[in-house]
Write a structure and sequence with these properties.
Length: 289
């Protein structure tokens, strides 16, 4: 049995573990932490040796939390959150106002957790939140209409890295895709990269389809998929509650991975931006990758 002293873990190792879990590979994690990839790899190895477990399954495309990693992640997030609370225990309470834009494809639990965590921790701050298509957020931040926003895109190289997000084909559980007939497709009807993603993928694969449902928001898109009315593309974090991933055996084409980032308005109060960023990261990391 390990002694109490031996079982104590350097919180810097936990912080690196959380970032690796978020990024899905060592290269991105190293960039985010402003360290070398070898240094991050050493930290992960030290943590795994300390706990006498492996925390990730390694694949050609990156690293995925295994069962042990999934067990550790919420504990690590809780510990790091408590450390932040201790650090701010005697600091002046935050005040002011912050305008934040969230993607409408965020899972409801992520959005709820962000707003609740931030409001509970900083009751003196007035939060003005919006949810919608992220394609408009860079311009809104530049105009000063938003102080901070979560932005998404396959070719997104803006802002501060938040996480990567798998795009997946989604359907109602129990339904089968019959490729002898045109696939009924649900698509977003708005000017963003999501709009053409499903049709381009099926056109490139030579798979016939018919657009059965159009919507300008993700909530309606998900409803059409849950009803079994159509097949569509969702972020991995939105799968569940009546939707499931279409298995590769059903022959639909591979999809790209999007990059989520945090945009912030130049001149916005740094302490408020940092606090909101921490709330967004914690909520996003608490969800399965």
């Amino acid at each position: 049995m390990k002694s109490i002293e031996h079982s104590m873990i350097d919180t810097d190792l936990l912080r690196s573990f959380v970032v690796i879990a978020n990024c899905g590979n060592l290269t991105m994690a190293a960039q985010h932490l402003n360290r070398t990839q070898s240094a991050i790899s050493v930290q992960l190895r030290r943590l795994e040796e300390h706990l006498d477990v492996t925390l990730f399954d390694r694949h050609a495309r990156g690293m995925v939390l295994n069962d042990a990693g999934q067990q550790l992640l919420p504990k690590a997030l809780s510990i790091l959150a408590q450390i932040r609370e201790v650090g701010s225990l005697f600091a002046d309470p935050l005040t002011g106002s912050i305008r934040v834009g969230f993607p409408d494809d965020f899972d409801d639990t992520i959005l709820e957790q962000v707003l609740q965590q931030f409001s509970d921790a900083h009751p003196g701050v007035n939060v003005i939140a919006a949810s919608g298509c992220t394609s408009s957020y860079p311009a809104a931040v530049n105009r000063g209409d938003l102080d901070i926003a979560v932005y998404s895109g396959v070719d997104n190289d803006e802002g501060t890295f938040l996480c990567t997000e798998k795009c997946v084909w989604a359907k109602k559980p129990g339904t089968k895709i019959d490729k002898s007939k045109p696939i009924p497709l649900a698509v977003l009807d708005r000017q963003c990269w999501w709009q053409d993603l499903p049709t381009n993928a099926l056109n490139d694969a030579g798979i016939d389809y018919v657009i059965a449902f159009r919507s300008s928001n993700f909530a309606s898109l998900q409803a059409a998929i849950r009803a079994g009315f159509a097949v569509g593309i969702l972020p991995m974090s939105c799968i569940g509650n009546g939707t499931t991933i279409v298995p590769r055996s059903e022959g639909l084409p591979e999809l790209p991975i999007s990059r989520r980032s945090i945009l912030s308005r130049p001149g916005a109060p740094e302490v408020l931006i940092d606090a909101m960023t921490a709330a967004i990261r914690d909520a996003r990391l608490a969800q399965p990758a």
